[in-house]
Amino acid sequence: xxxxxxGRYDAIIVGVGGMGSATAYYLARRGxxxxxxxxxxxxxxMGSSHGQTRIIRLAYYEDPSYVLLLRRAYELWxxxxxxxxxxxxxxTGSIDAGPEESWVFKGSWESCKLHDLPxxxxxxxxxxxxxxxxxxxxxxxxxxxxxxxxxxxSVASSPT
Length: 160
Fold this sequence. Notes:
160 residues, D-Amino Acid Oxidase, Chain A, domain 2, 3-stranded antiparallel sheet, 34% helix
C-alpha cells in the first residue's frame, strides 16, 4: 500500500451518530481508510441515539444470547470513556416489570439466570412503596446490571 492518498476509502459511513461514529472509529483503528458523512451537525437531535442518555442493560429480555455482546459493549464504553477522560457510563440498577408470563419478565429473568447476573425477583406488593408513584404487576425482575450511557457526550467525545 502506497503512502500517497489514493482518493478511495475502504468504508463510507452514512450517518455518524452513536452507531456510525463507533463504526468509523473502530474501522479506522484497524487501519481502514474511512469517510463519515453526516447530514446534520455533530451531535444532533435528529437520529435514533440523540439525547442526553441511553440505556444499556445486561438483563436483555429480547434474547439471552445478546448478553455476551453486551458485556463486550461495556468494555468498549469503558475504553472510550478512558480515552475521552470523562465519565460516560453510569452504573445503575433496573426494574423489568410485567406479569409473570410476560415476554419482558420471562426474557429478563432468563438472561439473569443463564448468565449468572445479579438479580432479584419481587412481587408487585414488594415493590409498592409510598414513595413510588405507580403500582407494579404481580412479578418483577430487578437487575443490578443496567447501565446508563451518556450518548450525546460519547458522540461528541468519540475520536473519529
